[in-house]
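hey so u asked for the seq, here:
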Amino acid sequence: MQAIFGFDRNDPLAGWHTAVLNHFGVAGTLADPWRWRNVGTETFGQWLLYARGELEAGRKIDLRQAVPEVRWIQLDGSQQDHQRQLAACQTRSPVADGTVLIIGDSRNPSGQQRFAAQTPGAVTVEAVDLRDLVSFAETFDLNGAAATAQILDFAQRLMTNVGTAELTRRIDVLRRGQARKEPNDVEKAALAFEAERHFRCVASLLSELNRQSGARVFRPAVFRACMQALQRCDRDGTPFVDTVIAMREEYRMVGRSLPRRAVGSTLLLKGLEADVAVVLGADELDARHLYVAMTRGSRQLVICSRTPILG
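ran it, structure tokens below
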């Protein structure tokens, strides 16, 4: 039920019943929900075992008949669905300093990032390939006319309150010497980069964007890797893209710490545990992805879907 990594239809995962059980006997079945028992929610754990059996048999589950730890939030396809799911993302853990995993669509990373940006305290769990950072490094032209715009666009994908349109307008006014107001720290950093095209100036601009009022980095892994790569480039002169790729390989070897409120997909959050799991758009999940999503939280499960009948 946790075999969710079948990326290629032409190269499917081995079938459990056909490729495994035809050659090996069943030694035993895990039937004790220890993680749930240990936190006093064994009834919830037993319901998940029941749900596993139903889904594995090809049947569906009815959330209206679930245990009290399971909360269903009904979606209706209207514009209010986003607000309903955003409210679900802000579900509090029933224990102090508890953790919350918010599980979005694996096929829509930008959607996951949007929820992380709009949910106070939430950050994304990034894929180890750091695809967006590598793409930025491959296309960024330090001396190009559009370099400042590239930096601002990238920053907007990592943090809140960048205000790209207004900042671009202000930089243009300042550049032409027509500003009535003195430049603030962010604007000074942008002008400094345009005057002196160094990677340290890129890092300074990103730092000032992060320091401004109302800013919050919701993709800290990407931001941190980018800042470290920029510092290395400035120090030893290595090409930016080569440094980023080296950073990516280093990050593959380092375990990821789980933030208090993390946003990701089943593919990224499989194997991680939290007190609360919030599942967004559960109608789109097949039985295996649904099972993986439902079993991330040990104390509470919140599922957003159009129908209570899932699987």
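Residues 148 and 194 are 7 Å apart (CA to CA). Residues 220-236 form the longest helix (17 residues).
lmk if thats what u needed
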